[in-house]
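EI: anyone free to look at a 191-residue chain?
SC: sure, send it
EI:
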Amino acid sequence: METKDQRRLGFPFRSGSLCLDFVATVAKRDMNDREMLVDAESLQTWFYVAGLPAAQDPLDEARLVDARELREALNALSRARVDGLRPAPAAVDVLNTAAAAATPVPVLAYDASTVRPFDPVPVESVLSIVARDAIDLFSGEYRNRIRRCLGHECSLYFVDRSRQGARRWCSMAACGEKASSAAYRKRHSVR
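SC: here you go
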């Protein structure tokens, strides 16, 4: 049996939002921008570890370009929200176009308590799920709780669902512990 950590296959899922996890497929953004969606197989892998339906074959270079275009539009919209700037109309158009594709319909399994796994669907349908998640986030109750992680070498966005709205890190285990350890070392260093 696979554990959740084994399934993630190197992709970070710490944002609390599917669309922001998709933005995180560029690691170390604005530092050294490491592309994680290097080919169609890595995009298909991300769909799998995100719990999305598989894309129908062939998943070609043009579909990979479409996925990256949506991701970059989501990044631009997230950055605008965090920085308090007006969103770029072109990014909104990309998001709305992606969201317009039909999404797969969930089907209840015969046990009447679980959803039957989806059959592969067109990549546009999978990306539409991500785009609709973004529309829900950017227009929903947490639209003003999108944050950028303050971790030293982290570039992830996350949704701050804390009661006080004062969360600083994408994850306490990933970035918060590092910051706490560094602050402790600084306070207790020999001078």
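EI: The first helix runs from residue 4 to 7.
SC: 👍
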